[in-house]
Amino acid sequence: MMAFRTSSRQASTAMMLTIDQDAPESNPEDQLHPPSGRWLASQITEQLRGTLQLARSSQTNRQKISSGFDALDLVLPSGGYEEGSLVDLFGAGPADGRWWIAWHSVLHALRGGRYAVVVEKQPLFYPPAIASLRVPIESLVVVRCRDDRECEWAIDQSLRSPAVGAVIAEVHTRDDRMARRWQLSVEHGGGLGLLIRPPSAHPQRTPSWAQVQWQVTSCPKGPRQHTADSSSRGRWSQLRLLRCPKGRGGSLATINLLDPTAQWPEKAA
Amino acid sequence: MTRRIACIWLPNWPCQRWLHHHPQCIGHPFALQQRDPRRGWRIAAASSIARQQGILPGMSTSQALSLGIATLPTTKPSHPTQNSPQPNTTAPPNNLLLGQLDPDADREALEELAQAAQQFSPTVALESLEEKPWAIRSLHQPQALLMEATHLGRWFGSEQEMARQILHWLQSQHLVARIAIADSLAAAWAIAQGMPIAPLAQALLRQNQTGITSWQDIPGETPPWIVDSCSLPQWLDRLPVTALRIDQPTANTLRRLGISRLHHLLQLPRSGLAQRLGPGIIRKIDQLLGHIDESITGITPSQDWSACQPLEIPIDRIDWIEQILTQLLEQICLRLQERSEGGLRWIARLTMQEGPDLFWTLNLFRPSADPNYLRPLLLQQCETKWKSLASSSPPAITQVHLQAALRTPIRWHQTLFFDQDTTPQQENIAPLLDRLSNRLGRQAVVQGILQTDPLPEQACRWHPITGTLRTYSKRSRSLSQSIQTKGTKPLPAANYQTRWRAEPQETQPLRRPIQLLPMPLPLTTSPPASQELPHTFQLGHQPSRKVHQARGPERIETGWWEGDSIQRDYYRIELDHGDWWWVYLDRRNHTWYLHGYFG
Asked: Smallest Cβ distance to A142: which of B439, B447, B505?
């Protein structure tokens, strides 16, 4: 049953194994009257149907990881991120709130004593900041790489580990194969990969196999519906859902980074 | 032939290591400070130039700063484990540079040096410390290597030549050392440590601002010192009494009695000495004279935990070497498994036919005695090292050696069958951390530990995860808790005020930035040189940005007892394009700096 949990590719492999194992035992009657082609086809079809149902049901039973913001969970079709998925965060500046949004998701991904891995090229990460999120410091591992190639490898290895609940990194890669590799790794590990794209990255020109993509824009003056003095009560960001599994792309959500429970969902423009 | 021991003393080892990692400090007076829990920041070690200015170990940092214009480092270390800050070398040459003493890093570097020194002797050890620090040393940490030198002189021509080669090897690494070879460990140690060097050498030391000198070029009695049993009394006449490895109270008592030289002490009756100073002083004298033998516990573990394969014909093929390493690994793992132990640190050594040995260390997060698990990790580093060698010349290996340098019992945790969430993830994270650490380096995989220091640069210390002995309890799953027992100061949970200063609470989100810049970046403001919060900020050549809203100031100051004063007014500002910066006004030079991003 667990073999069907990760991907359709593994599911098909398991299906073949099942057919081999469940092949009818040879007996003298069968040797005298071999099964017809139609019978074999119906058997294979039944097996295939059962396998697909199993794979589908296992996919729907995947545990959800909250994004950390109610407004984002409302926009996401499954009410959060799925385990074993990649999330891309595009933005325009180095301090537009994407790291803070990602760390809110990390908090929910660290279930069962899992670890969070931060992969960085420059030693910038500052742990005291996330203490206010109740992220356990002892569950954080920081990997400092010398170049982009090492970063890519470290991200891949971390995503593949079942003990890692979340990997958070700023990635500069434009390699499609590496992006696909990350997707397979995160499916294998069952964690969450939060990839902060550099400000120069364009969503349509960046190769990515992420399940969810966000475009983050800062709103210094707060949401449109709110009054003018609301801006003094929070830090507002508007997120556009660029890609998600069940086709809600284009949805907008405005969130207050200081108050994750605030809900300002907006409809697609 | 009697036993021969060589002692290699690396004077002022913390400063020498600091110079090795910070060559930009050469020519500047610098000192390493250490925080005393009761007396605040103290100078732990000082360079020769700083000592000439009167800055001596033991004095308070503020006192040292009053003697010289100081430049307190303000940046975060670039290296993960280099907790000591980067000094500001743009200061004038006479300014005092301050760093932070790191005894763990000092010991680790000395152990690496001992590993490399095994090219001269099979038994090399770090000097073993006693419970109380010695009077002749200001620091209670090893600073000398001990080497078994019995019968080794013939391989180098003579003991003098052997010592000269060791000195030459150390000088090639820009290290200053003093070597003495004697019949007993205590005699070699006393002569290397306490022998006064020639006046010309002292003058050269004073003139040489780099702290690096060449003893061989100095005429007169300079290292290396080769002492035999016949001439030992003549040497002892010139040694101070503190060369006997006695503690400070004993040295004070002897000084009050007017005994400053060893030969004065040796002339006194033993019974009186024991009665007045205790039996320990008699044991020290006997060790010095060779009446009591002292053993050297080499860094190479016993035969049980190491394996060696000498090769009659030197080989130069990596696949053969890997095969030999695999066999040695299986041998050691078998012995470890019999005792339910695992290796936490493995050291492999390839002895070259020509040139220095090639060795590498494999540090693990969790002890292991599984050859299938260890083999790929070990061989990966072997290939990396081999490639770096093969680019220069094809090396010929005459011996392959493997040892489990650090061992600890393997702990087994019983897991619940149905409850997957309670499975200890430490068991599962180990392969990942070992792989990362093995390929990227031990210093690249780190974990942060929060400190109580309000200065942002020092609010978090980084420690490598692998290769560290830790003590797990049933309740404490966390790794950092175990690391904190090594001497770092943990965050007190009960003290609300200190905890509030260092760790933002849930009610204060975004009080500290998620990204802290290693070096604060100066900002251009409008109006310029404003002491109030400016209207606009400009970073480098980027467009000028207006301040949309700001929170602050949060003043962070350091006490006078902590060295050069730091006075900063921090603001959390939101710019017109939505970015949140952490900026501060340096109240000493009225300049604005960008120190972090709120991600």
From this structure: B447
